[in-house]
Design goal:
With 313 residues, this protein is α+β, with helices and mostly antiparallel strands. Helix content is 27%, strand content 25%. It is built from six helices and 18 strands. Strand 3 and strand 4 form a beta hairpin. Helix 1 packs parallel to helix 6 and helix 3 packs across helix 4. The chain is globular and about 60 Å long.
Length: 313
């Protein structure tokens, strides 16, 4: 059992049709058939959307995604059309709203890993593979991989868990040409972001991207290459503490869990004795204490500051 502890009622805005309430984002469609994505301050862990929000989290995710979209634009076009808040929307939507083009979304999470952690570590310890890719002996928690690898996963609904799948399964779902383009683009984006982050003292251990397809007809800024008269477009959020593992480079030490600038801080509290919660039981997780909320906000804001060079205002 998992999902929302308390599922929020969608905000009703004139001219917008509510489509979906996700773990973090609320999705609407406007009268121009564009998507309006609003990043909330909700936070999820262990397939639960927690009852406590992290102040400013939605704005940090949105502003950091915009920064990354700009720095990756030559590698992949993105879905952002504007950051204008729709008329009649709550004032709180400022800074957390993206108006985006509608896409046909690829049915996979495109994950790139440069270091061993998370579900990749669990599989490696059992089989010496990640998503079926053989890795050398002797790696441990936090080890850098010989080269970055593409380890796709299924896209799960709220309350469900993403499942790692093989590259062959991706090719079966989307076709070999598109699968190859997804892998190539994912690894190119990861390589660029890894180098940028490293210059700023952050190790980008892994991250996930989402892509959609847009018709190429009439486009002059597309990257093309997805086959079938389509182009591949980078969508959703990108390279945030929600979708990535960010580790401080100066304290990286393989063989142990790494300090992080992401929501691992929340996971650690939930799985520790202080929460009193059994993540494998049926009871929903408890409210986060004030110090965990503030500590999490600080980590997200620090990731933003280090990466962009500007404090989060």
């Amino acid at each position: 059992m998992s999902g929302f502890v308390h599922k929020p009622e969608p905000v009703q805005v004139p001219g917008l049709v509510h489509l979906h309430t996700g773990k973090v984002r609320d999705l609407y469609r406007n009268e121009a058939d564009e998507l309006v994505m609003v990043a909330s301050d909700r936070i999820s862990a262990y397939d639960w959307v927690l009852p406590t929000e992290i102040p400013d989290k939605g704005r940090i995710l949105t502003q950091l995604s915009l920064w990354w979209f700009e720095h990756l634009a030559d590698l992949a076009p993105n879905h952002v059309l504007s950051t204008e808040v729709p008329a009649g929307a709550p004032a709180d939507w400022a800074g957390r709203t993206l108006v985006c083009r509608s896409l046909r979304m690829a049915p996979v999470e495109c994950v790139a890993r440069g270091y061993l952690a998370g579900s990749g570590l669990v599989e490696y310890e059992r089989f010496r593979t990640v998503c079926g890719l053989a890795l050398p002996e002797g790696l441990t928690d936090g080890s850098e991989l010989p080269a970055p690898i593409f380890t796709p996963a299924t896209k799960a609904d709220v309350g469900e868990h993403d499942e790692n799948v093989s590259y062959e399964e991706v090719a079966r779902r989307v076709g070999p040409e598109t699968a190859a383009h997804l892998r190539q683009t994912t690894l190119a984006l990861y390589g660029r972001a890894r180098d940028i982050a490293r210059e700023r003292g952050i190790i980008l251990a892994d991250t996930k991207f989402e892509f959609g397809f847009a018709d190429m007809a009439g486009d002059t800024d597309g990257a093309g290459g997805a086959g079938g008269g389509q182009r591949l477009v980078l969508a959703d959020e990108v390279l945030t503490p929600d979708s990535s593992r960010f580790w401080p480079a100066d304290s990286w030490e393989p063989g142990r869990a790494q300090p992080s600038f992401d929501k691992q801080y929340v996971r650690d509290w939930l799985s520790g004795p202080g929460s009193g919660w059994d993540r494998h039981g049926e009871k929903p997780p408890p409210e986060l204490p004030a110090e965990v909320v503030e500590g999490t906000r600080t980590k997200y804001a620090e990731a933003y500051r280090l990466l962009t060079g500007n404090p989060f205002e």
